[in-house]
Specification:
The structure holds two protein chains of two kinds. Chain A is an alpha/beta fold. Chain A has twelve helices and 14 strands. Chain A starts with 19 loop residues before the first strand and ends with a helix. By secondary structure, chain B is an alpha/beta fold. Chain B has a single domain, classed as Thiamin diphosphate (ThDP)-binding fold, Pyr/PP domains (Rossmann fold, 3-Layer(aba) Sandwich), CATH 3.40.50.970. In chain B, the strands form two sheets. Chain B has a five-stranded parallel beta sheet, sandwiched between helices. A two-stranded antiparallel sheet of chain B has the order 4-5. Classes of the chains: A alpha/beta, B alpha/beta. The interface between A and B is large, with 45 and 47 residues. The structure holds thiamine diphosphate and magnesium ion. The site of magnesium ion (MG) has 6 residues of chain B, from strand 4.
Chain lengths: 344, 325
Amino acid sequence: MTAPTEPHPKPGPRKTRKTRKTSMVKALNGALDLAMERFPEMFLIGESIGELGGDFGVTRRLWAKYGADRVRDTPLSEAAIIGTSVGAAMVGMRPVAEIMFADFLGECYDQIVNNAAKLHYMFDGQFSAPLVIRTACGAGFGGGPHHSQSVEGWFMNIPGIVIVAPSNPADAKGLLLAAIESDDPVLFLEHKALYRSRAEVDPGYYTVPLGRAAVAREGTDVTVVGTMRMVPMALEAAAVLAGEGISVEVVDLRTIRPYDAETVVESVNRTGRAVVVNEAPGTGGLGAELSARIHEECFHRLSGPVGRVDALDTPIPFSVPLENAIMPNPAIIADAVRRQMGRS
Amino acid sequence: MDIGRQLDLYRDMWTIRAFEQGLEREFEAGNVPGMLHTGLGQEATQAALAAHLEATDCFFPDHRCHGLNALAQQRHGGDGRSIMAELFGRATGVCSGKGGSLHSADPSVGNFGDNAVEGSYMATVLGVALAYKLRRQDRVACAVIGDGTVGRGEFHESLNMAAIWDLPVLYACLNNGYAISLPAAQGLASADIVDLARGYGFPCVQVDGNDIVEATEAVATAFDHIRSGRGPYFIEFITWRWQGVFSGEFRSDEEVKYWKVDHDPILMAAEKLLRLDVPEDRLHAIESAERERIEEWIRFAKDSPEPDLAKATADVYIGWEVAGR
Ligand SMILES: Cc1ncc(C[n+]2csc(CCOP(=O)(O)OP(=O)(O)O)c2C)c(N)n1
Ligand SMILES: [Mg+2]
């Protein structure tokens, strides 16, 4: 697929109206509220998203404001939740579905993969599926094997689906609004460990473009690429490494499919070194894809092989020390960067 | 039912039979790629549905519904040649050859497309029906399903959700006795599927799907019920498919004879019409006219160009282009 051609926005003070520190949950809630106001054809659907406001509170107060027709509680019927969303999208509505935990996407995998992702293509453009599937993913709280997974790899091999994965509240809001505006089906990954992270968030309506990475920190020695929780971890590692005289550039992919290879390649061609960080197991996932792409496109500019930091190739154990033992962390990322610099 | 209407339905059944027989011949000659499932033997149920579905309604056809797809086009101002061409994978097909037999859609006549993952649209139909309901449109969203799909979780998710939300869904379940080779009596807790559906609390009926009058009247009643805002409706059509399995016939000679001769929907309808003093010539003329029409569609399909190769990478996304080689 073609990479985006415009240059990504450089970091710097975003032009905002009134700003205040907002959690990712609140930022997402604000995005849904603004979109529900703006798009009468939009509705929310999921398990206990109504009066309760969802397991994590992302839809809080929307049921009271918009009513049960537009904020729809469902039984434990994930295939029907996504099927309903796809069918409604086929006739011009804009559903935003919540699958409580990403681990349950298997229950509606067929609707996403064989239906939402393919119908525009296989029916020759006669139908489209402008739906958003929000879901809570990721580890970091002892959720165990069925409440902690990073699922992007399950979907990366599926043409037709867009996968969005924000790392901070401001991006989360703008990306969610862009996802709702998008005419393509979007899988919107919300990392549970980031839900309570806080940042300044513009209270107004704005979008962050899909398919575009952001440079979360500029640097000159090594490029670290990651998404979601791996971005704050990489930033933490970068801060430590700065004290050792190593300048790390952190690229936050933000959209995983179709992803912004141009920004990644440009950065690595500049620094000549790359570390790819990924919370999922390393085999066959995002880390593997990025590593392969960088090797293909930056080979002659690289000082050595791309470094990789992934979760270990295991399911996710319940015990927190065991979970920590299989997960990446800032120290492991920093070590991988030092190895790139020949300083291990 | 008056004779004129019965004759129309008789003609529609012949459209389906001629379509499928012509297609089967071309498939065997190697002119049709992929797999072929025909609606032979199930013409009455499909004709009954086609007679009631408006272009503003929605139906999800199953893998044996080529005839229904063609009839929908005919009834709503076109003809079925782009359905035929799609089966040949041609540029003039209803999906430019990208869908084929198992993924033919034509929203302009309410055809929302088959899904080769059998029965998956039992979930999708809910969303179309929900949109109709929220917009206060008196429309019907119909899922045509086989007995085999009753084994899927989506069957139960769908009937449950249609019931709790009172959605305008018609489940048209074609019980032809088998899923591939598995008898319904062996694969389902009740071989009378209607009894499984009844637990969800909306009207469920079982009819002779090979009796065109009975089938049509059942569909009419269901449409009245749904259009008047009274929620979902389930019809189990008892029928039988001529096609065995890919490797051949697996059913007893006796069973085959019963369904193909004694209880064939077209022969049954013809007998009824003859008893009403419709001349035999008239019935023959209907058959020949339909066979001719279908041959013309087949010629059209075969004369049509293959799709432009640029189609291979078109329409993957709306917001992005996918690169070619
Ligand atoms: C989900 C799924 N499982 C299996 C198949 C393979 N398959 C194709 S047709 C079929 C039988 C379907 O039986 P039924 O619904 O009774 O339809 P019939 O062919 O008898 O008309 C099966 C198992 C499929 N296409 N989709
Ligand atoms: Mg069957």
